[in-house]
Structure formats: C-alpha cells, structure tokens
Amino acid sequence: DSGLDVDAVRAQFPILHQAINGKPLVYLDNGATAQKPQAVIDAVSDCYSSYYANIHRGVHDLSQRSTTAFEAVRGTVQRFLNAPSEDEVVFTRGTTEGINLVANSFVRPMLRAGDEILVTGMEHHSNIVPWQLLCDATGAKLVVVPFSDAGEIDPADVAERLTERTRFVSVIHVSNALGTINPVEEIIRLARERDVPVLLDGAQSAPHMPVDVQALGCDFFVFSGHKTYGPSGAGVLWGRYALLEAMPPWHGGGDMIKTVSFERSEFAEPPQRFEAGTPNIAGVIGMGAGLEWLMALGLDKVAAHEADLLAYAHDRVGALEGVRIIGTARRKAGALSFVMDEAHPHDIGTILDNDGVAIRSGHHCAQPVMQRYGIPATARASFGVYNTRDDVDRLVASIDKVRRLFA
Ligand code: PMP
Q1: What positions does the domain Aminotransferase class V occupy (predicted)?
Q2: Which residue in 351, 350, 323 sits closest to 337, CA to CA?
Q3: Does any ligand 1 atom lie closer than 6 A to the CB of residue 201?
Q4: pLDDT confidence of 1, banded at 50, 70, 90?
Q5: Rounded CA gap, 360 and 335, in Å?
Q6: Fewer CB within 10 Å: N-end or C-end of the chain?
Q7: Looking at the predicted complex, does its ipTM rise above 0.95?
Q8: Is residue 365 within 8 Å of residue 203, measured between CB atoms?
C-alpha cells in the first residue's frame, strides 16, 4: 500500500468525472500531458481574477503582487528539485525550450568541427533535433548510445562512446515511449570523470518520482509544468549557477538586461538573463501550484502508487494473447507501450476511446525507438497519480475486445 488516498486525489480533478462515449472516462495519456487538480485551476483563476498584471516593471499594487507570486515559484521549484539556489531556476515554455536554450547558450559556443555530443537511442525528438541543428551549424557529430531489446541502456556502452571529443551528454531520464528509468547516476558519474557536463531530460521523471539534482549530480535538468499537473506553456530549466553565469543569453529582449544602449547592452544575472519578454505569468504560477500539490502528496507515495499500477498493468496486459509489450526494462515508470498481432495501434486507440479509455497511439515523438524495434507505432497507456487498478482493468477489458474483434 502506497499510503496515497487515491479517491481523495481523484475528487480533486473535475475533468475525470465525466463520461466519454457513454462510459466513465479512464485517462491513461499522462505521458502526453497530465490533468489539473482544483488547486492548479484555482491558482490560475485567482491570478486572473484578482491580481494579474505584468511583472517586474510595475510599481503598482497588482504588478507587485503578480511579481511576488511569480517569483515565489522559483523557491517551489528549488524545493521540488532540491536545488542549491532558486537563482538556478530558469522559467521556460517547457522541456523543449530548456534543451534548446542549453544547446544554443551553453554548448554551441564551445563546439568545434569534429566535437561530439552524446545522446541515447531512446531520446524524445526534442533531445535529438536541437543537437542535429547544432551539428549542422558547427560540424560536430551526434553520437548515439544503443539500447537493448528490453529497452535498457548499459553504462558500459556509454563509457565506450565517451571520447576526448565528447563535449556534452544529454540523456532522457525516463523514456516516454518505453517507460525505462535510465541508469543516469552511472552515466553522470562516467561523464563527470571526463569533465563532460550532463543534461537530464526530466519530462517523464519529474511527475513520477522524487528528483534531487544534487544527489543525481547532473549539470542541467529540464521538465515541463504541464506533465507535473500544471498548465502548458510553462516549464523549468535548472542549471548549476556557475554554468548559467558563464552562458550568454539566447533570446534578447525586455526583462533580461541591466542597461541597453545602441552601443552595447549589459545582460542581467541568471536567471533573468534567460527570460526575455513577458513570460507565461499565470502559467508559471499554476505550475508552482501543481508542484506544491505534488509535494504535499509526497513524491515517494506517488512513485509507490504508480509503480504498483504499472506492475499490475504489465502483468495483466502482458498475459493477453497476441499482445506484445515494447519495453520490458527492470526499472520503469509511467508508461506501458504495446503492440498487437493484428490490430494497428491507431485501431487500438480508436476502439479504446469508444470504451472511454484514453491512450495514445503513434511514435510518441521517438521515431528512432520505433525504428529500433522495426514497428511504426505503439499503443501507450501512461499513468498518473489519479489512476487506479480499476482503470487498468478497464484498459485490459478493452484491449481484450480489440483482440476478439481482430481475431
Ligand atoms: N522529453 C520527453 C521525454 C517528453 O516526454 C516530452 C513530452 N512528450 C518532451 C521531452 C517535450 O516536452 P514539451 O513538449 O513539454 O516541451
């Protein structure tokens, strides 16, 4: 027993209490985005209905209140990640923007032709394409660490590919397509032995487990607020202060400077240096509410509850004839991908939707993972804190229906 009161959790999500195609909704698409608890809806609504104004520049009351609420989220994120300082918390639009920022501000200036950037074979497109763009511009090379049939990375394969040309390592913490929890502590240790900085793509770890950037030892950690039960369009880049301090800005504009003249501009200190323009004010405030809400539940309990669901789903879905689970790693979180002998993943998704069961079918923005297994797509059920074993039973009953329809 995880100690989590799931009924009480579910009661806080208005969207879950509806019928889809006449059946009670079972939402199993949390890998794509999570639903929002009342605390987040209220935080956003309260911002817009009582104190919204632009931040940082105003002396008037509303601007000061908005600034205070917005800036307070840095402290929330600091606690959420156990970061040494809230000045290391940069607000972004999400994981994608965080990776692009690090690629362009931190990595790009040090790249020479022939340098190498190391990623794994199970990255999300957002941790592939920014590096390819950099490689195209600089003549650097993208080096890819393979993974096993089970969907696991062997640190020895990482060690083998770390060379004197490796300038940066960027790794997915938890795979959105396979659910694998990667051996990131080991990967970070190997990289740091060679003084190579490491970014963790935490889009799929932050919602599901306690994250401690100091214990992990990474240099950058990025995640998306919309997957941690907050609004979309707000996310976090955490980076070691010394690294942020040495980085030039990526976006130029208002709110990121000390002084501007036509001769030259002096940039603000981090994190403001990286936050040009008016941010998603209510979105960041809502993200803070989501993180506070998750921390109040307890990430340990969340992880234990979801681990139980995933193990149960593995057993039950894996026992169905004609169903093959893609990704059978020993350590997994969040997601269960599968294919069926006869039915295409899109057919599976459509039939499940008819039963009110929302899953995702497709390549999950990880086409190289699909290529690795020689399949075009998978069906993916991904879990959140409000899911139950009943949800898994509904999933299984519906997959069984697909099986019988296509048999
Ligand atoms: N990385 C991973 C592992 C993801 O799952 C996602 C979202 N599916 C992203 C990156 C991109 O996140 P966002 O679209 O919020 O920028």
Answers
A1: 26-395
A2: 323
A3: yes
A4: confident
A5: 11
A6: N
A7: yes
A8: no
The answer to whether 62 touches 52, Cβ cutoff 8 Å, is yes
Ligand 1 proximity of 203 Cβ (cutoff 6 Å): yes
Cβ neighbors of 407 (< 8 A, separation 6 or more) are 322, 342
pTM above 0.95, yes or no: yes
**Structural tokens at position 239:** 């980076």
> Residue 359 C-alpha to ligand 1 middle, in angstroms?
17
For residues 224 and 365, the answer to whether their CB atoms sit within 8 Å is no
Pocket test for ligand 1, best of 365, 367, 369, 382 (most atoms within 8 A of CB): 365
Does 126 sit in the ligand 1 pocket, CB within 6 Å?
Answer: yes
State how far the Cα of 46 lies from the Cα of 383, in Å rounded to an integer. 29
Label residue 101 by pLDDT band (50, 70, 90).
Answer: very high
In terms of DSSP H, where are the helices of 17-104?
Answer: 38-46, 61-81, 95-101
Could you identify the atom of ligand 1 that is nearest to the CA of residue 95?
Answer: 16
d(CA 85, CA 22): 49
| The two three-digit tokens of residue 84, written as one number | 């040494």
CA quadruple 46, 51, 54, 55: dihedral positive or negative? Answer: negative
β-pair partners for 337: 326, 380
Q: SS3 for 251?
A: coil
Concerning whether 218 is annotated as a catalytic residue, the answer is no
Q: Which amino acid is at 121?
A: G
Q: What is the CA radius of gyration of the chain?
A: 22
CB atoms < 10 A from the CB of 246, how many? 12
Q: Among 165, 118, 125, which residue's Cα sits nearest to residue 146?
A: 118
Residue 183 is which amino acid?
P
